[in-house]
Write a structure and sequence with these properties.
By secondary structure, the protein is mainly α. It has two domains: 61-157 and 254-278, no CATH class; 170-247, no CATH class. Helices cover 74% and strands 0% of the residues. The protein has helices at 2-15, 19-22, 35-53, 64-80, 84-98, 103-123, 126-129, 133-156, 159-168, 173-203, 211-239, 259-277. Helix 6 runs antiparallel to helix 8 (133-156), helix 9 (159-168) packs antiparallel against helix 10 and helix 10 (173-203) packs across helix 11 (211-239). It is extended. The mean pLDDT is 77.
Length: 278
């Protein structure tokens, strides 16, 4: 009976909460500004969102190779044109085409083009004081058209179809391989950065006086992980017998559905030649 009582007392003593656990904790961590982490995360999420959503809409039925041809052709005509009326016609044509896009894609195109045009206006601002204001407006308009058409190509064509179209033009395999892998790993490593920044933000207590050190730690982890992923990808390519050769499923450059775009290129060329000769 005594043995049972002692055991009960020992069990009761072991279950008692220590005094240091019941004491009030007066620690009040100093407030810290988390704008650095928050802005970095928002910027990364925005870039990754754009990368994932690229090419999720269809711009007509043109093949990616034809899209690349007529977009680059229109950019060259815009760059060499010395007639302001031709530029205004191209602007009207582009804006009319962009109106058929969803609102978020339209906003992305206009924001990118407007930012590039504004930068070119700031660079050419001295031309206004030198008596050449038309030069600033002409160059800015050309920049706006060129950037908007390139952004239109990026948001209406998936990246994998763009890289496939490059093979149609006999682009070297090493260039296509580098371009393709870079685009894919930007998204993968960006996701990794967002996860690390989220974990760091959730575990941060108090004020961090060495934010640059935290950033270097994030970049270091991403670098080490990217090196491991590169080795794993190399091993996977060896196992699958990849020899660096990209094959295009499209045997013909032009198809019947591309006839409308060829006619459009011919019409723009005729307008360009007519206005240049006038």
């Amino acid at each position: 009976m005594i043995f049972l009582q002692v055991d009960h007392d020992m069990t009761t003593a072991e279950n008692e909460i220590p005094e240091w656990l019941t004491a009030d904790d007066d620690y009040d961590p100093p407030a810290d500004r988390e704008n650095f982490i928050t802005k970095t995360m928002l910027k990364l999420v925005g870039v990754l969102s754009n990368a994932r959503e690229d090419g999720r809409i269809r711009a007509g039925g043109a093949s990616p190779a034809v899209k690349i041809i007529y977009i680059l052709y229109f950019i060259v005509l815009t760059a060499v044109s010395a007639n302001a009326f031709f530029l205004y016609c191209m602007l009207a044509f582009c804006l009319a085409r962009y109106c058929f896009l969803p609102a978020k894609y339209l906003g992305r195109i206009l924001r990118s083009a407007a930012a590039a045009a504004l930068l070119s206006m700031l660079i050419l601002l001295p031309a206004v004081f030198l008596g050449q204001p038309s030069a600033m407006l002409t160059v800015s308009l050309k920049v706006f058209l060129s950037v908007s058409m390139l952004t239109f190509l990026s948001v209406t064509t998936p990246w994998n179809r763009l890289t496939s179209a490059l093979r149609v033009f006999r682009v070297p395999n090493i260039f296509i391989f580098t371009f393709d892998i870079t685009l894919k790993y930007i998204v993968i490593l960006g996701d990794m950065c967002v996860n690390i920044l989220t974990a760091m933000k959730l575990r941060s207590v108090g004020k961090n006086k060495d934010k640059s050190g935290s950033l270097s730690g994030v970049l270091g982890n991403v670098f080490l992980r990217s090196r491991e992923m590169a080795e794993e990808m190399y091993g996977a390519m060896q196992c699958r017998g990849f020899e660096g050769e990209y094959y295009s499923m499209k045997k013909k450059l032009f198809a019947g559905r591309d006839a409308g775009y060829v006619l459009m290129m011919a019409a723009v060329t005729a307008l360009f030649c007519f206005l240049q000769a006038a």
